[in-house]
């Protein structure tokens, strides 16, 4: 990038919002796990749709690659510039307005840079629920959540970020603005453009605002921690719970014993919820729009059936908000608690729900063939068919030896995922991390169609190049 | 189309499944309302994906336009060839297999030509619910439902056809087959191609099969018919009902008195459910996964609140399945009961839910300015913001005089829809009927993107030309 081009970009947002000093730029080119460091000469922080439009127009005209960035919490490197220094980072963080809150239509219209936590808080203050919930919600921005179609624990009852979005405002690579900020649950007027931008990881345009759905705040909520003998039992329990509770079943997390063990070992102020260990656990959450009593009654009905059918070996119901938070806390620290145990080879996969028990076993056999002493740290959203199928470093093995098997173990697990007609990225996206694998393993017809879409929307190829496709 | 080209197409499916006689062709080029008669020399009824692929390949090679057709129940002419006789109709009716039923993953994999009724029945026999429900379900095929993203009364709790679909198998205009028949609730591996084909009305490719979601059969169901004083009261009641019931609120239909009046007048064996008339009615349905008692208790809680807050003027609860069916029957005949009352100018619109009362009034003022004696026959899915805002011919006005105002009245209503940021086709699609209006009134950026998608997927322009875009 030559100096005069940089000046033209700077002129659009003004000196104050164009970062050029290394120290200012640093937070935008490193991410918390240190996996995807990049380089850039310029971070732009536009404050209006017009400015974004001007930036993209100039980028298209000059062939300058643009990397849109939200809260920089993505897990696959989608928000990072490459090492060339030629890519300009476009931060959406100044798009921080809540434009509209419509309590009767149950919608909130927010700009892309609003953090997920702020969005959840704004909903709560208005007596509503915005159900998307992620460990990174204090930093993650809704624009990034949309671009990566974020998942999390709320998907079971409320769907992915895609399902929570009714309309978007997008600046196209040409600088044109697609204003589709509509609050409509039903609209059959032509192709579904919204869902192309959602999940495109910034490769088709820049989402600057969105209309998101709101839900009623539950009047009752109950949390149970259950010991189960096997994923097969957990699956049967899930079937019974969801038949009975429908959308009132707002959480059903499956966790192997070791994931809990690591949390108890490394996270302060945690305790085993049950008097003895079980091979697997389920965290079940029930929400009721009617009353606290109703939620209690419903979860008791489900547990009664679960005990009778011998699907639940032991269980405890949270008796206070504090206890409920403590149970969720165990689940939420599982990823983090793996760190002190050494390296971890992670898989964010989904398979048809019915095949989860079989998948867990078959993948584990494959991993053990490669690394007999590996430890399985498997936890995830059973009802969504989505598991974080993580392999922790064996106690007696050296880090380098374990990491040398990274690709092999990855391939072995993903191979089985594909045989099950599953997904190698259930909720984190493709970004840089899985691009080559996607291209190598997805049906050629699918990747070809994706390339055609990319070319149709971004003929100059300036939007987040070499990500996704 | 010259004779040798016809022979080449016929050779793909065999003589038996290529219709060339006028009598055989007739059912494919007329639809039940007689609005969209077309012409064709050839109807092809392929039986395998390979045959569809061969047909489209030949069509692309020779520039022959193809019109895919399901049950021929579409309301906007999307399934009809034009008058030229140059377009070949591709019927999916032989794609009638249920390929897979997975009770634990809650999915059913069906071919495009399976009728909606058969799909619903297959689910029911397996103890499950497929919630899509339409008046035309005995004839409509799931491929057509997907292509038009059909709506209906089940959308409130379960979503549109799009929301019920997990994966598709599609033959592209080139003859390539996209096999994306996956049973995954979560899959973030690249652009959302599925949702492009769903709702594309056969203009991007031919859907040959799909994985659809199943739900538990409710254990209890309650139906209430309520008299309300105004749409504003109905809206408040809807808010309270959905806060309390969440997804257990499986129906909330708003209907003006005249829609009921017409049914009572023209449909045999119908009776007014209440002892006196009210300006508006609500049909409310509650489903419970728990028990019949639970459904009863929930609807009683809602009605109690509704009466206390004076939102409900009078109401009746169905005391038997027969009574419940009779109440739904009133709602389902509203469209048909308009016919004996003369011509009808229909609008399938959606607006933000909060604006429904205001929209009804403002649109009615606009219509009355054009046709002071017109009769408003407004009914629809309040919770989806979707109204069938139909205008019936005034009693004293001649048919021709009324129909002469068609365009004017249409424009006036749609003008207000647009001012409310609504949709001029909430659930029926664009087809031929609304194509010109879509192009003339949608933002140029949106129609331009749609054209780019169309060109990227169907460069030869053979798929259902001059529909949608």
Verbal overview:
Chains A, B: It holds the Pfam family FAD-oxidase_C. Chains A, B: Belongs to the FAD-binding oxidoreductase/transferase type 4 family. Chains A, B: This is FAD-binding oxidoreductase. Two copies of one chain form a homodimer. With 469 residues, chain A is of the alpha+beta class. Chain A has four domains: 89 residues, Uridine Diphospho-n-acetylenolpyruvylglucosamine Reductase, domain 2, CATH 3.30.43; 119 residues, Uridine Diphospho-n-acetylenolpyruvylglucosamine Reductase, domain 3, CATH 3.30.465.10; 110 residues, 2-Layer Sandwich (Alpha-Beta Plaits), CATH 3.30.70; 87 residues, Alpha-Beta Plaits, CATH 3.30.70.2740. Chain A is built from 17 helices and 19 strands. In chain A, the strands form four sheets. In chain A, strands 12, 13, 14, 15, 16, 17, 18 and 19 form an eight-stranded antiparallel sheet that branches. Chain A has a five-stranded antiparallel sheet with strand order 5-6-10-8-9. Chain A has a four-stranded mixed sheet with strand order 1-2-4-3. In chain A, strand 8 and strand 9 form a beta hairpin. The radius of gyration of chain A is 23 Å and the shape is globular. The first copy, chain A, starts with a helix and ends in a 12-residue tail after the last helix. The model of chain A has no long low-confidence stretch (mean pLDDT 96). Chains A and B meet through strand 9, strand 11, helix 9 and helix 17 of A and strand 9, strand 11, helix 9 and helix 17 of B.
